[in-house]
Amino acid sequence: MYAAVDLGSNSFRLHIGEALAGQIHIVRTARDPIRLAAGLGPDGMLSAESMDTAVRCLRDFGAILRQYRLEAVRVVATNTLRVARNAEALLPRLEEAIGYPVEIISGEEEGRLIYMGVARALGPQAAQEKRLVIDIGGGSTELIAGTGDAIRLVESFSIGTHPQSAAWFPGGRIEAAAFDAAIVDARARFEDAAGQYRAIGWDGAVGSSGTIRAISEVISRNGIGDGSMSLPSLLALRDKLVALGHVDAFDLPGVKKERVIVMVGGLSVLIGVMQELGAERMGAINAGLRLGVLSDLELRANRHDRRDLAIQDCMRRFGVDHGRAARTAAIARKLFERLAPQDEPLKAQLLRAAMLHEVGLAVSHTGAHKHAAYIVEHADLPGFTAREQRLLATVVLAQKGNLRKVREALAVPELARAVLALRLAAVFMHARVDADVEAIRLRMKGRVEIETPRGWLRQHPTVAAWFEKEAAAWIEVGVGFQVTQAA
Question: What keywords were assigned to this record (predicted)?
Answer without folding.
Answer: Hydrolase
